[in-house]
Design a protein that fits this description.
The chain is mainly β and about 120 residues long. The protein has a single domain, classed as Cathepsin D, subunit A, domain 1, CATH 2.40.70. Helix content is about 5%, strand content about 50%. Strands 1, 2, 3, 4, 5, 6, 7, 8, 9, 10, 11 and 12 form a 12-stranded mixed β-sheet that branches.
Length: about 120
C-alpha cells in the first residue's frame, strides 16, 4: 500500500522514490492527478538532477483544448516496493502522478486537510 496526505490546497500528495542515474534515491512529493492519463511528469530541473535518459518527443491535448509538445524521458521508480522503469513527461509544474502509474490500484482520498491518501493494489484474478 502507498500512503500520503491531502495538503492545504486539497491536493492528494504522496512521496515518490525515484532512482537517479547515479543510483541514488530521490524522494519528491507528487500530486495524484486523476485528470492526467500518463505515468509521471517532472519539472525540467528535477529531470536534470536525476540525469534521466531522453527517449522521444510526446504530444498532449490539454484541458483547455490546446496541444503541447514535450520531451519524454525514462526513469526508474520504486512503486509499492517494486522497481519499475516508466516514461516521464517533462512539464514545468509540480510533479504529477498519472493514471497509468496507478493502473491496477484503488485510490482512496479523504478530502480534507491532512486527510489520508491510500493507493492499494487490487487483486483482479
Amino acid at each position: 500500500m502507498i500512503t500520503g496526505i491531502v495538503n492545504a490546497d486539497f491536493e492528494p500528495i504522496i512521496s515518490l522514490s525515484l532512482q537517479g542515474s547515479d543510483g541514488r534515491i530521490y524522494i519528491p512529493d507528487a500530486i495524484v492527478d486523476t485528470g492526467f492519463n500518463g505515468w509521471l511528469s517532472l519539472p525540467p530541473e528535477f529531470i536534470a538532477q536525476l540525469n534521466l535518459r531522453w527517449k522521444r518527443r510526446g504530444r498532449a491535448i490539454l484541458g483547455d483544448g490546446s496541444e503541447c509538445v514535450f520531451n519524454v524521458y525514462e526513469a526508474t521508480v520504486v512503486w509499492d516496493g517494486e522497481l519499475l522503469v516508466i516514461p516521464v513527461d517533462e512539464a514545468d509544474l509540480e510533479p504529477l502522478i498519472g493514471m497509468s502509474l496507478m493502473e491496477g490500484y484503488q485510490l482512496m482520498v479523504q478530502v480534507f486537510e491532512r486527510g489520508l491518501v491510500e493507493l492499494s493494489k487490487v487483486n483482479t484474478v
